[in-house]
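Customer escalation, tier 2.

The customer says the design service returned an amino acid string that "doesn't look like it belongs to this structure." They asked us to rerun it and document both sides in this ticket. The original structure tokens are below, unchanged.
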């Protein structure tokens, strides 16, 4: 308990090494570590209402890391503390992740007011890691003003990041009408700001055209109650040349201030906490089932029987469920 108390004090003091250790603790799947992690989360003031949680997604190669570094450095120059939680895809074959975001944000990683934490997505769908929500809370306890969650990449399931952030950014590259087909409608419906990156040099004209295309597409979507007039909107910028970043920040601040004033932000966070509770209950139940030796043995045997055609998948599932209910797992 003394070590946990010390860790808690270091996190509250903004110690980045302590924050990294705490995130490692909450990401651990060991039973004793989970118990310690729960005690730590209970003891920390993790509900920092002044922080802004920003979700960022975009297709691979669109410049997410470049944007985060340029944007983060600009925010630090404004006197803000910036935490970046970058989620890397996990290989289905080896189970490994590259976790290279920190090396791609070399300048930002050197800043004392910045914290960059790459995490593997594991088997979780939705572009985030299993413990991203706890990591956000820990960053808030360490008094970071801005928490940026960079997702794996754009896709239909990427909407999960919007269930743990206040502002959701969609970063896209200059392109024609085909670009509109490449991005799922679900992503556009939850995006607060669509940022057309690489609006410099030869691509500037294409970026302006893409911005116009997306602005037109947004007008076809149903108006959301969580937005003031003119939102969501499309902006052009160049992360490489640091052009348009101030404008993007001004729009984020305007939207966040409006949502804070109208109570949208606090209401949204309440719904997010409830969704997290429901999700965690399901994960814990699944975890207990997977850890049960009898169920593991049964599913293996039934899986073999399904493979050879001795039993239908439906009957096999019913057998497993009956055993789970009988064992009261």
């Amino acid at each position: 308990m003394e070590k946990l108390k010390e860790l808690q004090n270091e996190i509250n003091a903004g110690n980045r090494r302590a924050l990294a250790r705490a995130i490692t603790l909450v990401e651990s799947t060991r039973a004793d570590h989970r118990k310690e992690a729960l005690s730590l989360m209970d003891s920390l003031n993790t509900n920092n209402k002044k922080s802004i949680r920003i979700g960022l997604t975009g297709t691979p190669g669109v410049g997410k890391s470049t944007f985060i570094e340029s944007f983060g450095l600009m925010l630090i120059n404004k006197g803000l503390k910036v935490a970046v939680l970058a989620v890397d895809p996990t290989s289905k074959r080896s189970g490994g992740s590259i976790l290279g975001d920190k090396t791609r944000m070399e300048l930002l990683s050197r800043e004392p007011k910045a914290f960059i934490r790459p995490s593997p997505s594991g088997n979780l769908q939705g572009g985030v890691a299993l413990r991203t929500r706890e990591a956000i809370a820990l960053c808030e306890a360490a008094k970071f003003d801005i928490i940026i969650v960079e997702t794996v990449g754009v896709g239909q399931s990427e909407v999960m990041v919007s269930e743990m952030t206040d502002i959701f950014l969609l970063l896209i590259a200059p392109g024609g009408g085909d670009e509109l087909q490449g991005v799922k409608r679900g992503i556009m419906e939850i995006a607060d700001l669509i940022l057309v990156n690489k609006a410099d040099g030869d691509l500037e004209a294409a970026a302006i055209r893409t911005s116009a295309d997306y602005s037109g597409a947004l007008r076809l979507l149903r108006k959301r109650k969580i937005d003031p007039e003119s939102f969501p909107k499309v902006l052009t910028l160049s992360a490489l040349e640091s052009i348009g970043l101030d404008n993007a920040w001004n729009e984020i601040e305007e939207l966040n201030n409006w949502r804070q004033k109208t109570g949208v932000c606090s209401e949204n966070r309440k719904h997010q906490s409830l969704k997290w509770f429901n999700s965690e209950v399901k994960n814990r139940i699944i975890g207990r089932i997977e850890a049960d030796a009898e169920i593991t043995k049964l599913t293996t045997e039934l899986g073999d029987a399904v493979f050879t055609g001795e039993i239908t998948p439906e009957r096999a599932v019913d057998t497993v469920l009956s055993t789970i209910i009988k064992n009261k797992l």
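Tier 2 assessment: The sequence is consistent with the input. Residues 137 and 198 are 32 Å apart (CA to CA). The chain has three domains: 1-44, 46-261, 276-327. Sent an explanation to the customer and offered a walkthrough call.
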